[in-house]
Amino acid sequence: MSVAKYVEELGSILSSEETILPSSDLYRTQSLPWAAQTDLKPAVVIRPTSIESLSKALAYLSTTDLSLGIRSQGVGSASAKDIPISMTTFDEVDFDRQNEIVTVGANTMRRSTKLAPVMQASCPIEGHLKAHFSSRKYHLSSEFGLTSDRANMLDAQVVKVDGTVLWASEDPELLWGIRTTNGAFGVITRFKLRARKYQAEVWGGNILIPKTELRAVVRGIAAMVARPLNPKVAFYLFVMKNKQLTHMGAKENMLMVHAFAALGETHGRSGDGFKWALDCPGAVDTTKVVSLSCMAKLQAKGAANVWWASIALSRLDEATLLRAFDWYDDAAASPGAVGKRASLLFGFFTTRDSDVEYRFRLATSSRVPAQDNAPRRDGYRGVP
User: How far apart are CA 69 and CA 64, in angstroms?
Assistant: First the structure.
């Protein structure tokens, strides 16, 4: 049966507003994934506006041979050749202040104004919708752990592929699968997350450094990495092409240190913080004391629409950093799209070896294969 016939049958399940054809003005915004290279230009998009319509649609679509995808607004969103399910309407927020639990729609973005009163341990990758939940790394993850840790992700509401709606805690195997695997068990509509109390303001922002100061930056990073871990400090390092910085008149490529220090400005500017970056010749300091929500907005999606999976390292030295930059320089010098799209990003102190006891119990459980106790991409061994 053609896709058009399936769409016609979906018309008896969904309202006209929940079906988006390529001719619609909404098609582009509701079909484009974060990474443009994964856009499969689907035949039609459905955007359920309630859990009931999602349940009915998923139960029907699971009986077909159509290519399906679950689309959110974040880097984890997926496209599909036939029908992606856009989850942009699932963005509600409910905060139980007494029990310090926040229930968020699976597509709630971390920069959402609805989340402004809530200080979370870590945030979902701006809308993880498949039945797995990514171990999101963020500014506070080295202090409170990953989002998928038991202490942070308490439960998830799931629509299974047969249309059944339940909270994953009702099925321990399902909750375990969501937390630890990439299995396509269904669609998550809501998360229950542990809220964390935190100070109202932190110090951070961007420090732009001429790329000619690469060796000084590498030395500073290596020294910082070698010190005992401070869970209230984290940062990212980007290579910024001069054409991305035309607003500041940049004549050359620059390195951008996105700094975060919860201990305040004095600590952030000290030798225990980011003095090594601030002291680089030609450094442009745009850091300031801001709220956590403002820090999140600094990472809002810009013009770039490319995303690849990253790897994580438990140790990093000057030689490894320099090799990474050599790779970037070679890639950026390549002709065509490769050179234009070459990018390099490091994240430092954005995770920790969390839930050790839980992972050890799972790794020694009879229901977990031994090969699951393999090196994780974030640098430690064991089942997450």
Answer: 13
